[in-house]
Amino acid sequence: MKKLAALFAITIFLCTSVSAQSVVASKHDLSTGGGITNKSTNETQVCIFCHTPHQKTLTAKPLWNKTLSAQATYGTYTSTSLNTTTVVDIGGGTGVSNLCMSCHDGTVAVNSLDNKSSLGPPAMGSATELDATGKISSTNDNNMGVNLSNDHPINFTYDAALATADGALKTPVSASYVDAAHAVPLYTGSLQCASCHNPHNNAQGTFLRVSNAGSALCITCHTK
User: Fold this and answer.
1) Distance CA 103, CA 113 (A)
2) pLDDT tens digits, one per residue of 56-89
3) pLDDT tens digits, residue range 90-119?
4) C-beta separation of 106 from 135 below 8 A
5) Alpha carbon of 117 to those of 42, 62, 103, 141, 174: distances in Å?
6) CB within 8 A of 32, min separation 6: which ones?
7) In the chain, N or C: fewer CB atoms in 10 Å?
8) What are phi and psi of 93, to 5 degrees?
């Protein structure tokens, strides 16, 4: 029985280890060993493209190293079925979603960093994902542009009051998570880009936090 229990524990550990992924070699890894065609031709550090242990001038967290976009407004999603009145434009801020947009709005080069390595600004290859200036190409699907008014709303308070007013949303379990499994996080009670996307794990594709097979991610929040 003890051997069987030990074998079961080892099996669970191996399954967990195999399914877990990190940013290394993913499309968010822009180093020489990264997952995009236009990866750096000289920078071997993986984390430096977003984070630095010693921050100099930027105020965004967590220890953010990427130059933030100066975009003043992105617009906000509107609809006759939208029940929240707390949707706030993320433009000009340093919040969670702004960190994503510092690359994905296509206005700042991905190698524009605050704290560089001894190599200086990382040299980036040029092909399909990035343009000649190192920005995400305007023809690439990963370039969200500077107008989010036709995208899923972000930067709004998701709480019990909203769920009640809407009638088709699940009540979040806390101000930190939507669901009891803690798969979909909230940020100070607010839904952000990183609520649905985990920038460090691409196991589900497009860095989703939950597989959307059968609309599983959608129905974490929505009841229809």
Assistant:
1) 11
2) 888 888 999 999 999 999 999 999 999 999 999 9
3) 999 999 999 999 999 999 999 999 999 988
4) yes
5) 11, 18, 19, 29, 40
6) 39, 40, 41, 42, 43, 44
7) N
8) -105, -175
Phi, then psi, of 174 in degrees rounded to 5: -165, 180
Whole-number Cα distances in Å, 46 to 2, 25, 134, 171: 42, 9, 17, 37
- Judge whether 62 and 96 are in contact, CB under 8 Å: no
Task: Give the pair of three-digit tokens for residue 97.
Answer: 């979603």
Place of tokens 């930067």: 155
Query: What's the average model confidence in pLDDT over 197-220?
Result: 97
Q: What share of the chain is helix, strand, coil (3-state, %, to 5)?
A: 20, 10, 70
Cα–Cα distance, 215 to 36 (Å, whole number): 27
Rounded CA separation 46/30 (Å):
7
* Per-residue pLDDT at 12: 34
Residue type, 163: A
Residue for token digits 């990866």? 39
Q: Supply the DSSP symbol for 156.
A: E
| Residue located via tokens 């952000």 | 192
- Through-space distance between the first and last CA atoms of the chain, rounded to whole angstroms: 46
| Residue 59: both structure tokens together | 């105020």
